[in-house]
């Protein structure tokens, strides 16, 4: 006999968001070993600036060697560490977060709780702020993983705040009130609002006006406001990033005990494998309880040691943020330009590691069944793993999240070639059935041969 947690399907991983990953893992693309494989465009990972971090590590070998002033710190790091974290690391994190926010917000390390990534931070906050059966309101479309991270072990419910493409998915007072009323009709006790700023999956930062509205709403309802700012350092275009804490300060709410921020280095520094996250809160009881809970998922001492040194280098962090933003903007532009050539548009974005792509014109009907059919074809036939809007709880069929920062320029070119070939085949062939499939299969084989030939040519040139 197993627990209900084990045998039920409430973990949320039966979503098409995770199923696309499973298909990718069966047949992953590789430029030379598997050029016909599936290209992973469903993973929000930042691989564009690893060279900057690796260069810093080359220049500071003593950090990886666990030495300080030529003395070994191995024993100090290897022995038991208090779960409050290394003071030097928390100081460095606070300064880095302040730099991202243009020094408009200050962070007190005594209000900071270290966690093993933002997944742990968000779940811990749910345990602290809500009971099983309580609800949080979240602007939709939202990150598919929240159905697992926020709900599975906590028993908390999510009620979507319905945002629409016609106004650029802005959060409105009407949408907030509607979500609140729907929750009450379901007999759910609303404990707060949670946003991701910038938005995952939209790639847009929350405006100052929206943040003001959210704080006014949560204050009037006497509920919590949680802002997941994991993508704050990726904002590469106007409007600039504005933290909820900055707006709270302007509204004289900067000491409000119902405002909480989540942060991580997984996206801004591209270090998801390091499992570095945190909760920032003015609520002493939340900080105390969350700190105790953090013992179930601590950040290793050697990781804290390494990153304390890296983030304390002001010259490095300034250069990194500047160069990384430039590279993200250039990569976004390449994706948008490539899709535009295929007649595909995107929501205008200014941050994140993805674009919200409009494929409504490729649907056979304006239904989520048609969206699922198109998604299946794109994953299994075109060979691109992208995330359908339905997995993000979008109200409108035909939108997809497409990631752009987890691959090389060459792989992105392969992806765009496949998109062009797929759209071209759909436009050129109005017939159905075998003939249409044959045309696309032929076009895809041609693209693969073209790519292999291009790679071979490059390799030959490098060998001369």
Automatic annotation (TrEMBL):
Pathway: Alkene biosynthesis; ethylene biosynthesis via S-adenosyl-L-methionine; ethylene from S-adenosyl-L-methionine: step 1/2. It is an enzyme of class 4 (lyase). PROSITE patterns: AA_TRANSFER_CLASS_1. Residues 40-419 form the Aminotransferase class I/classII large domain. It comes from the Eukaryota. GO terms for molecular function: 1-aminocyclopropane-1-carboxylate synthase activity; pyridoxal phosphate binding. Keywords: Ethylene biosynthesis, Fruit ripening, Lyase, Pyridoxal phosphate, S-adenosyl-L-methionine. Its cofactor is pyridoxal 5'-phosphate. It catalyses: S-adenosyl-L-methionine = 1-aminocyclopropane-1-carboxylate + S-methyl-5'-thioadenosine + H(+). The keyword RNA-binding does not apply. Its EC number is 4.4.1.14. GO terms for biological process: ethylene biosynthetic process; fruit ripening. The keyword Cell inner membrane does not apply. Belongs to the class-I pyridoxal-phosphate-dependent aminotransferase family. 1-aminocyclopropane-1-carboxylate synthase (ACS) enzymes catalyze the conversion of S-adenosyl-L-methionine (SAM) into 1-aminocyclopropane-1-carboxylate (ACC), a direct precursor of ethylene. This is 1-aminocyclopropane-1-carboxylate synthase. The lineage of its organism: Eukaryota, Viridiplantae, Streptophyta, Embryophyta, Tracheophyta.
């Amino acid at each position: 006999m197993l627990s209900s947690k084990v045998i039920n399907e409430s973990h949320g991983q039966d979503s098409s968001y995770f199923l696309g990953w499973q298909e990718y893992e069966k047949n992953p693309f590789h430029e030379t070993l598997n050029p016909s494989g599936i290209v992973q465009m469903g993973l929000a990972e930042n691989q564009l600036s690893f060279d900057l971090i690796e260069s810093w590590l080359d220049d500071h070998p003593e950090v990886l060697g666990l030495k300080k002033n030529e003395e070994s710190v191995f024993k100090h790091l290897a022995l038991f560490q208090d779960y409050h974290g290394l003071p030097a690391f928390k100081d460095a994190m606070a300064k880095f977060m302040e730099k991202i926010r243009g020094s408009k917000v200050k962070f007190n390390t005594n209000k900071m709780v270290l966690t093993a990534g933002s997944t742990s931070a968000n779940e811990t906050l749910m345990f602290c702020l809500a009971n099983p059966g309580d609800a949080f309101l979240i602007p939709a479309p939202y990150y598919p993983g929240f159905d697992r991270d926020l709900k599975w072990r906590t028993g908390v419910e999510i009620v979507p705040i319905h945002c629409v493409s016609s106004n650029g998915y802005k959060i409105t007072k009407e949408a907030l009130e509607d979500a609140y009323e729907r929750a009450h009709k379901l007999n759910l006790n609303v404990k707060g609002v949670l946003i991701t700023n910038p938005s995952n999956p939209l790639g847009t930062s929350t405006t100052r006006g929206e943040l003001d509205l959210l704080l006014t709403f949560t204050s009037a309802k006497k509920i919590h406001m949680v802002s997941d700012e994991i993508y704050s350092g990726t904002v590469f275009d106007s409007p600039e990033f504005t933290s909820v804490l900055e707006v709270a300060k302007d509204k004289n709410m900067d000491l409000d005990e119902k405002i909480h921020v989540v942060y991580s280095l997984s996206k801004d520094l591209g270090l998801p494998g390091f499992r570095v996250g945190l909760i920032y809160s003015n609520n002493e009881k939340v900080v105390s309880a969350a700190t105790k809970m953090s013992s179930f998922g601590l950040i290793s001492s050697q990781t804290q040691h390494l990153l304390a040194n890296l983030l304390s280098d002001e010259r490095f962090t300034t250069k990194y943020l500047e160069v990384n933003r430039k590279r993200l903007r250039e990569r976004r532009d390449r994706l948008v330009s490539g899709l535009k050539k295929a007649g595909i548009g995107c929501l205008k974005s200014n941050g994140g590691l993805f674009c919200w792509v409009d494929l409504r014109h490729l649907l056979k009907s304006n239904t989520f069944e048609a969206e699922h059919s198109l998604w299946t074809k794109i994953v299994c036939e075109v060979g691109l793993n992208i995330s359908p809007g339905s997995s993000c709880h979008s109200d409108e069929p035909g939108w997809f999240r497409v990631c752009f920062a987890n691959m090389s320029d060459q792989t992105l070119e392969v992806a765009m070639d496949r998109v062009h070939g797929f759209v071209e085949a759909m436009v050129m062939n109005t017939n159905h059935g075998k003939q249409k499939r044959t045309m696309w299969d032929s076009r895809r084989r041609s693209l693969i041969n073209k790519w292999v030939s291009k790679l071979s040519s490059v390799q030959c040139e490098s060998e001369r």
